[in-house]
Amino acid sequence: MTTRNPSRIRRLAEELDEIDPSILASPTEPVALLEELDYALRPAVHERRVPSYGAFVEPTTPLAAWVEAAGFEVSRRRVEDLRDATVRRFADGIVSWVVRDGEGVNDLVVFDRSVGSERDLTILAAATGGAIVQRHPTGRIRAVGTFGVLRRDDIDWHLEPPVERWLDLDRCHADSLPGTLLTRFVRFAVHDVGARRIGALFVISPRGRLLSSAERRYGKPPEFNIDRPADLAPLYHILGQLDGAAVFDESGTLQELGVRLVPSVDAESNVDRYRGTRHTSALRYSYDDPAATLIVVSEDGPVSVLRAGVRLGQSA
User: Fold this and answer.
1) How far apart are CA 46 and CA 48, in angstroms?
2) What is the helix (H) or strand (E) element at residue 169, kind and residue range?
3) CB 211 within 8 A of CB 288
4) Separation of alpha carbons 132 and 119, rounded Å
5) What is the pTM of this model?
6) The domain spanning residue 288 has which CATH number?
7) Predicted confidence (pLDDT) per residue in 126-154, tens digit
8) Domain boundary among 141, 160, 179
């Protein structure tokens, strides 16, 4: 397969290298990732309709490993007699995807359900051992791999690095909050909530306990759990409609919604303001309640993890 436009590919490579050299360091053939990103930026348009698109780039594990690791049923479809340009037209980046290596497109795979969310893509990138490029039906362009999640918003790129790169999970460990559960919370915050530009605040505490100063404004919510994939969509849906904190217990089960966190006078005196109102109230509340771990999601994307009045980490 020949490069789509050598000059354009070269400029894209320079642009991504300036963002983070790790983006093009992981694939065996960086040109494959560049070509798929270039196509996602400029897909074939038919009757003024700009289609969505998706590609798996240089997967290193067999198809059976994708199913086992990601929990999705996936099947191959015959495309040997078709040109790359034709196969690409079948790939919607939600259910159907092309698979390619350094030479070009060599497969088409179809999943049994939508796998188009950012969280799905991070799971699949890890399962396949390669990179993923997607042009979502909304027009958002993403690349996912060992480098993290690269998003294109309008004319700018933004790299969301892997959680492990900005959050020291050993340091964050607490008896009431295992590192594995914290990782799931953070990935939900980054890839489901932050990726949708939803501002939110999570409080994770033993038995979902709150200080008496906290103001509860709603009744007992359904017991959605962060470990149940089916529960995540209603969770981020409701978070986009309410102010205040969502409170979870140490099992990851939702206990309260829309809680107003009220810091003590001592916290207001000893903890400086940090970013906006949501971050400041969360940091001060964590000072008052050191057994709780708080996760703050900004409307513009970054995620912060707080405990005992200390910032444990913040994403890009």
Assistant:
1) 5
2) helix 169-172
3) yes
4) 12
5) 0.88
6) 3.40.1700.10
7) 999 999 999 999 999 999 999 999 999 77
8) 160
253 residue type, one letter: T
Task: Please state, in angstroms and rounded to a whole number, the distance separating the CA atoms of residues 289 and 309.
Answer: 9
Quickly tell me which residue has 């409701």 as its tokens: 238
For 255, the enclosing helix (H) or strand (E) is strand 254-259
Give the pLDDT band (50/70/90) at residue 255. very high
Range of the domain at 248: 164-314
Question: Phi/psi of residue 100, each to 5°?
Answer: -140, 160
Other beta carbons within 10 Å of 227? 12
Residue 192 Cα distances to 21, 135, 146, 252, angstroms: 26, 17, 18, 16
Amino acid letter at 309? G
**Which one, of 218, 254, 210, lies nearest residue 234 by Cα?**
254
Q: Would 40 be classed as within a structural domain?
A: yes
User: 32 — phi, psi (to 5°)?
Assistant: -65, -45
**Interatomic CA distance for residues 135 and 139, integer angstroms:** 6
236 phi, psi to nearest 5 deg: -70, -25
Query: Of 49, 44, 190, which is closest to residue 117 (Cα–Cα)?
Result: 190
Same domain as 180, residue 138:
no
pLDDT in tens, 46-58: 898 999 999 999 9
* Residues in the chain, total: 316
Strands 141-145 and 131-135: antiparallel
- The tokens for 148 are 């993290």
Domain boundary among 135, 160, 185: 160
SS3 304: strand
CB 68: neighbour CB atoms within 10 A?
11
Q: Tell me, yes or no, whether 1 lies in a domain.
A: no
Specify burial of residue 2 (Cβ count, 10 A radius: 0-12, 13-18, 19+).
exposed
CA–CA gap between residue 161 and residue 165 (Å, rounded): 6
Closest listed residue to residue 278, CA positions, set 254, 313, 302, 256: 302
The reply to whether 177 and 210 lie within a common domain is yes
